[in-house]
From TrEMBL:
Any one Gene Ontology BP term: methylation
InterPro entries (UniProt xref): Methyltransf_25, SAM-dependent_MTases_sf
Molecular function in Gene Ontology: methyltransferase activity
CDD domains reported for this sequence: AdoMet_MTases (cd02440)
UniProt keywords, alphabetically: Methyltransferase, Transferase
Superkingdom classification of source: Bacteria
UniProt xrefs under Pfam families: Methyltransf_25
Name assigned to this protein: Class I SAM-dependent methyltransferase
Positions of the Methyltransferase domain: 54-150
Length: 252
């Protein structure tokens, strides 16, 4: 199913409220991963980006892209939603981007990347295009635009977190609610879709695109770290079980 139009519509609708609620957390410091803002300095997923050609898949308001441009990377922030890109553009225009000249915004879909093969040294996202596009379409596209030795690094919700999500209570609990093998397409508001794979299917789709898996990091927030997006019961859920998967891969 083509979820591009519905996902674009959803993100255009929610962009303003989403940024109002989450921008302070996402942009609090450079390089914060995921729902618990775990610093990359603890996880070492991205490495040095100085002088690298970087593509962020689903950049939202560009908090990550701006930070990497300021570190000396040449960054393209791609997003499906013009409202999200407008938020990124405003933030850039407000002078928050020290590396603004190294940073471009492009509207597009992770399923159909508008770039030539081998254009980037690093493709990455944090709950971006690889959460909102079918992986069997988006991963081969990411692999295509990477040069040899280039890395694909991305953070998504774990199947544990998704399978334990209680729709009725709008929170993650310790009870399995969804079938692990049936996660796949997750219905979001207004006909939009996000996507989830089993561990085995992630391995298949990454290897199938010719990528080497270097690491699977399971970010573990410290006790008491709040989840900025979802309620969990117990509150320390993610300290006890993995809420996110941070895949680190490269193209040989
Ligand atoms: C949760 S945000 C991730 C951005 C940022 N890391 C953040 O946490 O706000 C998801 C982003 O993915 C974008 N998106 C949704 N579907 C997409 C697709 N098929 N291709 C590229 N971007 C997409 C949305 O517009 C949105 O900006």
């Amino acid at each position: 199913m083509d979820s591009i139009p519905a996902n674009r519509r959803l993100w255009n609708q929610i962009s303003s409220a989403y940024q109002h609620e989450h921008d302070p957390q996402i942009g609090a410091m450079p390089r914060l991963w995921g729902m618990y803002s775990v610093p990359d300095a603890h996880l070492h997923a991205l490495g040095d980006v100085t002088g690298k050609r970087v593509l962020e898949l689903g950049c939202g308001a560009g908090q990550w892209s701006r930070a990497l441009a300021a570190e000396g990377a040449d960054v393209v922030g791609l997003d499906l939603s013009e409202a999200q890109l407008a938020a990124a553009g405003r933030a850039m225009g407000a002078g928050r981007a020290m590396g603004a000249s190294r940073y471009a915004l492009v509207q597009g879909a992770a399923e159909q990347l508008p770039f030539a093969a081998g254009s980037f040294d690093l493709v990455f996202c944090d709950f971006g295009g690889l959460s909102w596009a079918p992986a069997h379409l988006a991963v081969p596209q990411a692999a295509r635009v990477l040069g040899r030795g280039g890395r694909l690094v991305f953070n998504v919700a774990s199947p544990w977190f998704e399978a334990c999500y209680d729709e009725a209570a709008s929170r993650v609990t310790t009870t399995l609610r969804q079938d692990y093998f049936g996660l796949n397409t997750i219905a979001e508001d207004d006909g939009a879709s996000s996507y989830q794979l089993t561990y085995g299917d992630w391995v298949k789709v990454l290897r199938g695109a010719g990528l080497i898996i270097d690491d699977l990091i399971e970010p573990r927030p410290e006790l008491e770290t709040p989840n900025g997006y979802n309620e969990t019961d117990p509150p320390d859920w993610a300290h006890r079980w993995p809420a996110e998967l941070l895949w680190v891969t490269h193209k040989p």
